[in-house]
From TrEMBL:
Domain named ABC transporter: residues: 11-243
Record-linked InterPro entries: AAA+_ATPase (IPR003593), ABC_transporter-like_ATP-bd (IPR003439), ABC_transporter-like_CS (IPR017871), P-loop_NTPase (IPR027417)
Spans through the membrane: none
Keywords from the named record: ATP-binding, Nucleotide-binding, Transport
Matching CDD domains: ABC_Iron-Siderophores_B12_Hemin
GO MF: ATP binding; ATP hydrolysis activity
Annotated protein name in UniProt: Iron complex transport system ATP-binding protein
Length: 261
């Protein structure tokens, strides 16, 4: 795959506010993902993680503020140009009936395809390699709708990789995945030189794989920093209302979060 040749993007979320159901659900959130950075977004249910990510992949127009990809407003870009630079894994699995896993992954090529001609063989190779990266090549011929939750999730991650983006926006990429696939998918994201904004629930995974973590609570970014800076017992108690024991991984040095007593 030619991922290493793709230039990582810069995402700049500036003072973004969103309202839903007559309520402000994001309040002046600012966040910059530097090229190549893996930036995690954590926070309790309803904190606004998906809302923030949806503004980044242009599914939701913020009431105020701007979202810039490589300095250009995503809401002013042609859809196709955006899709060539940014791929998203939304929280809801689309119902792609009748399509095989291969077909769903291949949809990621659409923004790169020319009207006439194009590099069909090259496209096909990228689809195959991406499915291999998430260990779904062997199930490529299966109907997408009949796959398990974790298998579907991995096909959708492959579809995002097929886009060869400079920016990945992943809403709970480890949702439905077993322990090994959680690890493998995030390790894969880490290896690729692609800027990544990912909403994660598992703080230990976030600590292990993110360069920085943004903590959202009630629509506000209450902390942004490295895992060590952000994942403290006092902050977790304040934000989640749980007593935790934060330690240090003996080999990686990443913080580890355990429930307290
Ligand atoms: N269309 C909508 N109408 C009304 N309220 C909405 C709508 N969309 C989102 N909300 C509310 O906005 C808040 C933020 O939702 P969001 O999905 O961004 O949270 P989240 O942090 O991703 O949560 P979770 O961890 O549960 O996935 C929630 O209180 C939610 O109920």
């Amino acid at each position: 795959m030619s991922h290493h040749e793709v230039r990582p993007a810069e995402l700049d979320i500036r003072d973004v506010s969103c309202t839903a159901g007559g309520r402000e659900v994001l309040s002046r959130v600012s966040l910059t993902a530097e090229p190549g950075e893996v930036l995690g977004v954590v926070g309790p249910n309803g904190a606004g993680k998906s809302t923030l990510l949806r503004t980044a992949y242009r599914q939701l127009r913020p009431a105020e503020g701007r979202v810039l990809l490589d300095g250009a407003d995503v809401f002013r870009m042609p859809r196709r140009s955006l899709a060539r630079r940014l791929a998203a894994l939304p929280q809801e699995t689309p119902a792609e009936f009748e399509l095989t896993a291969h077909d769903v992954a291949a949809m990621g090529r659409a923004p790169h395809r020319r009207r006439i001609g194009g590099d069909r063989l090259g496209d096909e190779r990228i689809v195959t390699v991406s499915l291999e990266m998430v260990e779904m090549a062997e199930l490529a011929h299966r109907q997408f709708a009949q796959l398990s939750g974790g298998e579907k999730q991995r096909v959708l991650i492959a579809r995002a990789l097929v886009q060869e983006p400079g920016m990945l926006v992943l809403d709970e990429p480890t949702n439905h995945l077993d322990m090994r696939h959680q690890f493998d998918v995030l390790a894969l994201v880490r290896r690729l030189n692609v800027t990544t904004l990912a909403a994660l629930h598992d703080l230990n995974l976030a600590a292990r794989f993110c360069d920085r973590i943004c903590v959202l609570a009630a629509g506000e970014a209450v902390a942004i920093g490295t895992p060590v800076e952000v994942l403290t017992e006092s902050l977790l108690s304040e934000v989640y209302g749980v007593h935790t024991e934060v330690g240090t991984h003996p080999r990686t040095g990443a913080p580890t979060v355990l429930f307290g007593d």
